[in-house]
């Protein structure tokens, strides 16, 4: 703490140089640093001693609020008891307990593969899908289908099935054998929708076209975010996910829901799969699994998938995949404490109960300068701004900086503001959040 205080009180530009910041305008940041030095519940404290209301649960991960004592203590105890233990040919109790807890939360999914991030969870799920078909004697099923404007992390698998041009264009040829469904975002039809938009279920039928093109016997899996977060909160049209599920069923294609942001209560249910009552074959999670405290990701697989691998000699490894830190003891302890806290405080139910109030607050921004759409589901909101001609993303970034100055953390992607607060948020915080945002929107050039 002493070192940190010294660092922030004597901060100069050169102190910030060495860290190549991820997904950040490095030069802008280093000229105008924004550092968080501590956090509690709904607030961060900045290096210059200000309180900032967290409108984004960190990066969609701190669902139970910051520095919750139950999680902090579980981590402290675990790190002092078993700091690390391999899960290759060895085990430790926490990994088995956490996997079991997750399968209890997700009926129908009976095994869990651990990773350390959303990106790794996605790559693991894609590999499991392809290897699963092969294990069943359908080794030609190798093609993967993602969606435009999808975000599945930054591994080569994730950016290949992902659909964000800037995340793909610098990195070469990516995975081969990948196609994309069209995205479902259309303001002409769906602007200012409350909850799921009415228009767009038919866009799932594009999967039929890809099946005709490649033949189902060559397609392993379709991966989508049930609610796309990182490209600006794209809510699935009514009936869309159901249609994807039924086309996948028709052709024996695995359906993967990337629930890295929708998992753990964001929509007011354990998973989006429960909220929409559409059950994919694999679910990827991360972030909220440990309340963001310790990095962790996981893949939940539906009954039957693990079993398909369990043949051959008993001493032989069944899946040649895993990470040194798959099921890390400290992450597992954080995960167990987090899931307990979610349950004890009924946080998913709380998110559900607050979602109407949230919806009203989100749509109260309609009519303010530059606002061309407001949309919401659960405790998620997207507020789309008219871009400044020739300067995409500049207006929303300006809004982000002004909000930060006034004590509010929002997240922006392109010209869209994405909001996803901790599920412990109070109505008074919601009022404060949208009050501040409205003031900033009114003063934006
Ligand atoms: C849907 C989705 N998948 C994957 C990821 C990647 O997770 P990570 O940054 O932990 O690798 C994210 C991160 O925001 C995400 O939103």
UniProtKB/TrEMBL annotation:
SUPFAM superfamilies registered for this protein in UniProt: PLP-dependent transferases (SSF53383)
GO term, biological process aspect, one: biotin biosynthetic process
Gene3D superfamilies: Aspartate Aminotransferase, domain 1, Type I PLP-dependent aspartate aminotransferase-like (Major domain)
GO MF term set: adenosylmethionine-8-amino-7-oxononanoate transaminase activity; pyridoxal phosphate binding
Top-level taxonomic group: Bacteria
UniProt keyword terms in alphabetical order: Aminotransferase, Pyridoxal phosphate, Transferase
InterPro entries found in the cross-reference section: Aminotrans_3 (IPR005814), Aminotrans_3_PPA_site (IPR049704), PyrdxlP-dep_Trfase (IPR015424), PyrdxlP-dep_Trfase_major (IPR015421), PyrdxlP-dep_Trfase_small (IPR015422)
Family membership noted in the UniProt record: Belongs to the class-III pyridoxal-phosphate-dependent aminotransferase family.
The protein, known as: Aspartate aminotransferase family protein
Species in which this protein is naturally found: Thermocoleostomius sinensis A174
Taxon lineage: Bacteria, Bacillati, Cyanobacteriota, Cyanophyceae, Oculatellales
